[in-house]
Amino acid sequence: MQEEAIHKLISERALRTLFQPIVDGAARAVIGHEALTRGLHAGLESPLTLIECAGRHGLILALEEACLETALSAFHALRLEGRLFLNLLPQTLLEWTSLADWLGGQLDVHRIDPHEVVLEITEHGLIEDENRLAAAVRPLRALGCDIAIDDLGAGSSGLKSWAEIRPDYVKVDRYFVAGVERDPVRAEILRSLIDMGRITGCRIVAEGIENREQCALVLELGVEYLQGYFLGRPNRIPRLDPAALGGLEAASPAPAANCAEDLVLEVPGVPADATVASVVESFRQHPEWTALAVLEAHGSSRPVGIVYRDQLLILLSRPLHPEIYNRKPVTSVMVRPMEVEARARLDQVSRIVTARAAPQQHEVFVINRNGRYLGLGRTVDLLRQITTQQIQAAMHSNPLTGLPGNREIQTQLSQWAARRRHFVACHLDLNHFKPYNDEYGYARGDQVLLHVAQVITRAVRRPVDFVGHVGGDDFVLLLRSLDWTLRLGAMLEELTVSLMSFHAPEHRAAAGFDGLDRDGRQRHFPLLGVSIGAVEVDGAQAITAEQVLESLRQMKSLAKSKGGSKCMLASAGRTLDFPGSGAAAAATDAGPDLAASA
């Protein structure tokens, strides 16, 4: 009976698409909508029921095609703005080999830009062969679609898939958001995922936001994008209440650990002769525990195994299994623990953890001191701390401005170039800064650098754009904002005017000051100015970070040679004096042809 119903539902396209808004927490604006499918036949309304029924009757691909077609048609008919987030099962990606061609045709039919589509792969069904899945998404990336991992934390392969697939978005499972205002552990997990997202160039979406307190907290933790009933329920015509985001703030990160001991969670172990029933009761009384270490019997503290809550509960959910296992010792259900020494450095711990093949054992590990059980550690905490160390190391290279330094700049630029996305890279430095330091002193020079950093940071839109401080008077900007021309123009104009105020009145009146050049000769120097080399990377063709940097070097040299405050832009094979004189910005033959160099 159900087989006939699911066949009929698919053939008649008896499906309804609801849309739920996804909100940019910084801009307080909708950036896209997730398409959610519901069945119109009795008993098949729920998406989970639909998938289970289609799976039983070998109709998963047919159902996925029907859901995608319905969602694209509804999105086009409603003329919704922003990005369209579509759900896909992992097995669909592996089995539907012509998906990219089919989807490209459908996007043409419905006049939807592939670059506005995000394909969400749910972690619930992620397979252990992440390499195959990574290969399966390549044609979809080539089409122009972005990739998201959905429900991260609901399964056991999420972190491995994150590493292999390199998603553009990660949607954190609602479990970590629900109750986050009361549970510091969930808050720390969220913070660690946010830090990972920053390092890997991935945007984090917090799902399941139900109230103002949760919304405020995830914003404070640094989540970029938000989704949940508090912001907008799934509806045929989605709506966002602007008042929901009113008056929400944000702030700042936690201190780093140095070794495994700093990661210890003081979860007590259980003796090897404890019964399975007693362990289940311990998990019931402490729902925050996800695993327990099993220690040698007779009072020893040497770990001999580990038992995972979810695995145990799944085992006991099978018929007759409670009767079989409840009286048995916990050793009958434990697995071999992954152990690390308390004094091991975090990079050593990371290598041990990621070298293990079993996915769930990536999540929790045992920390020992001299072979004696100390506590449990979590991979998310490990990754958070490693990320914090990396960020601090990058920031320490420029303690004056607090902006990321060379390492982070190189990482960001390499990732952006590799992703084949449109962005504009800029290299900014000050004209005549050395003689200015000689004349006014280094303390005054530091004030100038702080001012420049503040102007640049105000001008860009974080976290969409990136600002780094190479050192001295050299800064790098990577711009993805759609209005980058306005931001860059406003920044150049503000610096041109404001830098004059750092000179003495007599020097402003003389339009410069006297000093020694690099060869020790006396000469007259103009007032401080700013030279910016800019390169527009359109993403249409492959280009390396080194090629971008070489083009930037040439553009900055050209800007320097022009005198005064200048920005020279390499774009589409032309060199432009930016912003020039309004619409009459002239192309020149000087400077590099970026298209040719790529």
Please give a structural write-up.
- This protein is α/β, with parallel strands linked by helices.
- The protein folds into three domains: 15-37 and 60-240, EAL domain (TIM Barrel); 260-383, CBS-domain, CATH 3.10.580.10; 399-597, Reverse transcriptase/Diguanylate cyclase domain (Alpha-Beta Plaits), CATH 3.30.70.270.
- Strand 9, helix 10 and strand 10 (291-295) form a beta-alpha-beta unit.
- The N and C termini lie far apart (60 Å).
- The relative contact order is 0.06.
- The model is unreliable at 249-256 and 581-598 (pLDDT under 50).
Q: Count up the helices.
A: 21
Q: How far is it from the N-terminal to the C-terminal residue, by CA?
A: 60 Å
| Overall structural domain count | 3
CATH C-level name of the largest domain: Alpha Beta
Strands ordered across the widest β-sheet? 1-2-3-4-5-6-7-8
Which geometry do the CA atoms define?
A: globular
**Averaged pLDDT, please?**
83
Helix content, binned percent: 25-40%
Tell me what the CATH architecture of the largest domain is: Alpha-Beta Barrel
Oligomer: single chain
Got a strand count? 23
The major sheet is characterized as: 8 strands, mixed, barrel
Output the keywords.
7-stranded mixed beta sheet, CBS-domain, 598 residues, 3 domains, Alpha-Beta Plaits, TIM Barrel, alpha/beta, disordered C terminus, 40% helix, 8-stranded mixed barrel
